[in-house]
Structure formats: structure tokens, C-alpha cells
Design brief:
With about 475 residues, the protein is an all-alpha fold. The protein has one domain (about 20-40, about 70-465). It is built from 20 helices and 4 strands. The strands form 2 sheets. The chain has a two-stranded antiparallel sheet with strand order 1-4. A hairpin with a 2-residue loop joins strand 2 and strand 3. Helix 7 runs antiparallel to helix 18 (about 405-420) and helix 7 packs antiparallel against helix 19.
Length: about 475
């Protein structure tokens, strides 16, 4: 079984350059976007409906009268961004609120103990098993849905003798990396290939190979860090915390059996997770339905746990308050694209970025597309939204510069997916680190080397795709 980490005082990570609060970063981006509406010429593409989705007609870019957004309306856009993001924000609030009810009942910690026993005390095996689960789900398009698992993976990491960053990484990093190049990602691959006129999920073998390479790099990066922290607690970027200091009783987890209530709650939690997985596929559930599912699950769980009404409300309220900053960032970040759209310069930016690709060799054009999609993702962090805006341009542009459309789709997917790991305008990222109570600057410094490895691997993959003319066309 796991051995308890040596008793030590919490280690405080070294202080480096202070990164501004994430709200400050987003506000700066919003003001910059607002100023751009006065400077960049307004222009738009005409939209046409294809398979029920509004997409750009790439041959219709034209100038329109300048419509600068006033400073007052910069801040109005924040409210509009929050309104437009309410369903996903509510889903995250209620999933975390419900998860805290299960945590308060002791069920989550007992589930961690059960996982430890199944893996016979091998902490590497435990982490690989969990990361594989998150990676497979991420490949299918799961992204925000793994946020409720963060408290459990952090508890497990602390028990293993690692730190909070390890626990966050177990749930978050495989999800993000797998989503970035998931071979069957319904939100990026399916949408982008459909717009490009390609068979859905075509070039599967090539995609699987690149995805496996991504996962090997990701798993290695997380496990290497975990091993180093376990061997030397001073290497922790978040500061090492003993399980006892985090109110985690290792002996109880390893030896105490679940109560009858906890067994019922564990089954109920697994059913909730199962419904969350199949609901979108069978019943076309969206964020609102998933949020309602978790709200119902949390209320019933509180009743089964024997909590009084006031206690259930208190647990859920405190949970929502604890991630307020992160969840609000989702709507806050969306205000940037709202301002660019109101100012009619979003299409101008896309047009301006696409023109230089026609002037360089095709091999470099593929990497150039990756860079452009990465930049655009800062303003349009939605995968399906970015596909609808950029693929109608990139697909025919690929024809012009001598690339296959499949390569253009690959460039889009990598540019959209990988930058999700590092940009503050990706609200889900801020929520993940908010749940773990890790500062954005600390997280960014930790994850950036991995991002460079993955983006470099992706660029090599694009060059290979260009050379072999990855198809069918």
C-alpha cells in the first residue's frame, strides 16, 4: 500500500516574477480589442448556411463602414459575454457544488482509497489509469466535464506523496492535450471536416498515431514531475502539503470500509457520470441539461448523506463561491470576441492573417496555418465556433497554396486545441486552476514547456502531412 509521506512543514514555492491576476489580463485584452475597433478597417465576409451552420463564404470579404465600439460598450460587452455564457457557467457551478456534497459525505475520499487498493499501491499505475480515462474522454470532446474530478485527483496526489499541481495535472492535462488532437473529437474534427467537405473522421490512422505520440509526451511530463516532487518536496511549484494538513487520513482511506450510505452515494455518483457521458449522444443534451443533472444529483446526495437542508445549501453555496473568479472568467473572456464582432474587425483580422500564407512554400504554409489558428484561438476559444469562422477560408486557401484540406483541418485542430492550455481567455482553463487554487502564473510557468513540446510535435506532424499529401484530398 501507499506509504505516508514524511512529516514536513509545507514548503513555499520560490517567488518569481508576479503575473497579473487573470481578470487583469482579460481586461487588458478587452481594452486592446476596443482600441483596435478604432484602428483596424472594418470588413466582413458574407455568411451562408451549410448543414444548419452559418459559415463564411471565403470569396466575399468586403469593407464596411467603421463601427468603433465606445469605451462604455467595452464594459457592456462583459455583461453580454456573461449572458451568452450562462449555460456553461451554470453547468460548472452545479457540477462543482454537487461534487462538494459527495466530498463532504466522505464518498470521494473512500473512492480514492478503493482506487489505491485496486492498483495495489503503485502510484504510477494509479496515475496512468486515471490519466488514460481523462485522455480517452478528451479525445471524444470532453473538456469542461472533468472539472468535478479535480478535488479527487488532488486528494489522490497528496496521498501519493505528490502535490496539488500533480493532482490538477492528472485530470486537466490529459484532457486538454487529448482534446487538442482527439481523432474523434466531435466539436473540432467532425465540424471542421464537414465544413471542408471531407468525410467525417477521415485520415483516422494518421490522427491516431499523432494522438498516441501526444499522450506519451503528456503522460511522461506529468509522471516525471510527480516522481521528482515525491523524491524532493522542495521541487513542488505549488508548495508541498502533507495529506494530514489537508485533512486526509491515509490510514482511514486504506483500512476503513464504506458505510452503507457511502456505497449508495458511490453508485449514484457513477450513475451521474454515466448519464453525463451518454446524455449528449442519446438525448442531445447541452450544458443546461448536464448542469440540471448535477444539481439534482447533489440535492439527492445530500439527502442520502443525512445532511439537513441548510447544510446542503451551505455546502453548495460555498462551492460556488470558491470558483466564482474562474467561472466568471468564461463570460468575461467572451467579451473580447463580442467587441471584435461589434466593431466588424474580427473578419478583417482573419483575412489579414490568411493573406501571407499565399506567399510562402506549402510546407511552411502548413506551419503558418498552425500559427494563425493559434492566434485566432485567443479571440475565439470555442473549437466549433472557430471552425465555422476559419475553415471556410482555410480550406480553399489550402487548395491555392498546394496543401490538402485534411492538412488544413489538422492545422486548425492543433492551433485551436493546444493554445487552450495557456491562454487566459479560455474560461475552462481558469476554472480548472481555480478549483485547485493554483495561480495562473504558477500554472503557466509549469505547463509552458509541455506546450512547446506538443506544438513542436504538431508542427512536425503537419510537415509530414504536407509531404505525404494527407488526404483523401
Amino acid at each position: 500500500m501507499f506509504s505516508a509521506p514524511n512529516e514536513q512543514k509545507p514548503l513555499i514555492p520560490k517567488q518569481g516574477i508576479k503575473v497579473p491576476h487573470v481578470w487583469t489580463i482579460i481586461l487588458f485584452c478587452l481594452i486592446l480589442a476596443g482600441i483596435m475597433t478604432y484602428v483596424i478597417p472594418a470588413g466582413v465576409y458574407d455568411r451562408v448556411e451549410v448543414a444548419g451552420r452559418q459559415v463564411i463564404d471565403p470569396n466575399t470579404f468586403h469593407s464596411v463602414p467603421q463601427t468603433p465600439v465606445t469605451p462604455f460598450n467595452w464594459f457592456v460587452s462583459i455583461i453580454e459575454g456573461l449572458t451568452a455564457s450562462m449555460s456553461i457557467m451554470s453547468m460548472i457551478w452545479f457540477t462543482i457544488a454537487a461534487t462538494d456534497v459527495y466530498t463532504e459525505s466522505g464518498t470521494l475520499h473512500k473512492m480514492v482509497g478503493w482506487i489505491m487498493k485496486v492498483c495495489k499501491g503503485n502510484y504510477i499505475l494509479v496515475m496512468i489509469a486515471l490519466m488514460s480515462f481523462f485522455a480517452i474522454r478528451g479525445a471524444m470532446g470532453a473538456f469542461e466535464l472533468h472539472i468535478p474530478f479535480v478535488p479527487m485527483t488532488i486528494a489522490l496526489a497528496l496521498i501519493c506523496g505528490c502535490d496539488v499541481m500533480t493532482g490538477l495535472a492528472i485530470a486537466m492535462i490529459p484532457t486538454f492535450a487529448s482534446f487538442a488532437y482527439g481523432p474523434i473529437n466531435v466539436y473540432t474534427v467532425a465540424v471542421a471536416q464537414g465544413i471542408a467537405g471531407l468525410p467525417v473522421y477521415s485520415a483516422m490512422a494518421f490522427r491516431v498515431v499523432i494522438w498516441v505520440i501526444f499522450m506519451v509526451i503528456t503522460f511522461w511530463y506529468v509522471l516525471r514531475y510527480a516522481s521528482r516532487v515525491r523524491a524532493d518536496h522542495s521541487l513542488s511549484v505549488t508548495g508541498f502539503v502533507n495529506p494530514t494538513a489537508a485533512d486526509i487520513d491515509i490510514n482511514a482511506l486504506q483500512n476503513e470500509k464504506m458505510t452503507g450510505r457511502q456505497k449508495i452515494l458511490m453508485v449514484m455518483l457513477l450513475i451521474t457520470i454515466g448519464l453525463q457521458m451518454v446524455g449528449p449522444m442519446l438525448w442531445k443534451w447541452g450544458f443546461s441539461e448536464i448542469g440540471a443533472l448535477w444539481l439534482i444529483s447533489g440535492i439527492i446526495a445530500g439527502i442520502i448523506a443525512g445532511f439537513k437542508n441548510d447544510k446542503i445549501c451551505e455546502i453548495m453555496g460555498n462551492a460556488c463561491a470558491g470558483i466564482f473568479v474562474g467561472v466568471i472568467c468564461i463570460g468575461f473572456a467572451r467579451s473580447v470576441s463580442v467587441v471584435l464582432t461589434k466593431g466588424n474587425i474580427l473578419d478583417t483580422v482573419i483575412y489579414g492573417l490568411s493573406v501571407p500564407l499565399q506567399q510562402i512554400p506549402s510546407v511552411l504554409s502548413a506551419v503558418g496555418m498552425l500559427v494563425i489558428q493559434s492566434i485566432i484561438n485567443f479571440f475565439i476559444p470555442s473549437g466549433s465556433g472557430q471552425a465555422a469562422v476559419t475553415m471556410p477560408i482555410m480550406a480553399p486557401l489550402a487548395d491555392v497554396v498546394g496543401l490538402t484540406r485534411q492538412t488544413a483541418v489538422m492545422a486548425f485542430q492543433l492551433g485551436d486545441g493546444l493554445t487552450n492550455m495557456i491562454i487566459p481567455t479560455m474560461g475552462a482553463l481558469v476554472v480548472y486552476i481555480g478549483v485547485a487554487k493554483v495561480e495562473f502564473g504558477t500554472y503557466f510557468k509549469w505547463v509552458f514547456p509541455l506546450y512547446l513540446m506538443l506544438i513542436g510535435t504538431g508542427a512536425i506532424g503537419l510537415i509530414v502531412a504536407t509531404v505525404i499529401k494527407l488526404g483523401p484530398f
